[in-house]
Structures are given as structure tokens and as C-alpha cells.
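Please, is this right?
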Amino acid sequence: MPAARFTRGIKAAFRRQASDEILVLAESTGLNASITPWSVRQTIFGALQGPDGAADFPAITEGLQATLEGNPEFFTAGSTAIPTIASVVAMPIECSDYDLEANTFASFNESLTKGLERDTSHIRISYTWQIQLMCIAWPFPVPAQTTLPVDKKMLLVTADFDPVAPTEYTTFAFAQAKTYALAVRHEDDHVSFGLVHQPSTLLTKEFLRTGVLPTARNETLVTVYTPGMEREPIPDLYDVPTGPAAGDLNT
């Protein structure tokens, strides 16, 4: 096992175990009366989004460690999180476009259970299910789902692992239109525009300036698939590049 993968695997295992222990303490008010299971989950969720959608794993690891050692400040500070204007505006747009078919809590719970069974990385990212849970309360009818006849050139950009929008969504979208190109940034986090020196960002800016799709390539930090190509299998989360050059956030 590569050293980088071993190290990241150990840290991920610690985060899972520590999170479970802290949730048990919060449920029994063994931490602090102001720290509830909700505030624990909300704080970790916020750190998974991080600045510009980049998951702040170092902050999560250090916060969990400090809490287990008796300093729960990480969760005290995060327990006051409130919705942003963007989230208030975005949710009606999301919910009016989601055809959930069986619009009930039972169907949401079934979807969550089946999804977590396929979560081979055991990171348990649940952003998509949070949207589904919120949208079961949407009181208005949702238009029937149809495939849009897209015949314009478009560049899709994703990463090996995206904590906000599963990269599998992008694979599906890429296969729907023969005029799309796909750029896959090799690392994790949501989008790459905030990573100004990343090859995927430079490719995106060049496409926006010129309207010319990038050519196919397979490089350390990015792979580009041109229209009609098939994306390679998604690599193991712990085998992808790490460090600042790959866009890792480190507080």
C-alpha cells in the first residue's frame, strides 16, 4: 500500500471512529449542554464544504482530536451555523427540479440506506440525501423529467472525488451528449475554479475565452476526454494525488 494512501486511510478511520464517539457523548450531554448531535453533524458538514466547496479535512481531524481531549470549541463555534441567502434561494430551484417519485420520508430513508451500502470509501458524504430530505417537504408539482436536446459544445469539469456533487453525475451527463468534453481533475473537492493554477482551471478559462474544446490528454493532475470517448473507472479515493499541487486544502 502506498504511504500516502496508508496515511490518509488511517486519518479517515480516525475521523469515522471519533465522530461516532462524539455523537454518543453529545446525545448524553457528556460534552457540553450547548453541543447537540445536530450541532456536531452541522459543524462537520460545514467543514466538509469548506471555503469554495473544498473539504477542510485537517480542521475536522484536529477538531475531533481536541474534543476527545476535552476541548469541544470546534463544535461550539460551529453550532450557530445558519442558512445563507444562497441556500435559501437555491433550495426552491433544486426542489422544483427534483422528481422524487415517492415523495415521503420512508422513500428518502430507503434511498439513504441503499446508497450507504455502496459507499466503498466509508466517508458517508450525504449532501445529495440532505437535498432529498429537504425536498420531500416541497408542496408543488414537479415537471416531468426529460432529456434536454443539447447540441452545443460544453466542457464538464469534475474531480476524482467531489464532496458536493458526486462525480458519477458528471460521468452520466458526459454520456448524454456527443458535443461535450470532460475534464477530470485528479484529486478531491468540489470544482476547481478557486484553484487558479490547476490545469483543469486553465483549461476551463481557455474554453470560456475561445469556445474551443480542449484536446484529449492524460496527465498527472488532469485527464481530458473529448466528445464520444468513455471515461475510465473512478480511481480509489486514496490512490489519487495529494498535497498543495493537487489542490489539497490545509489549515
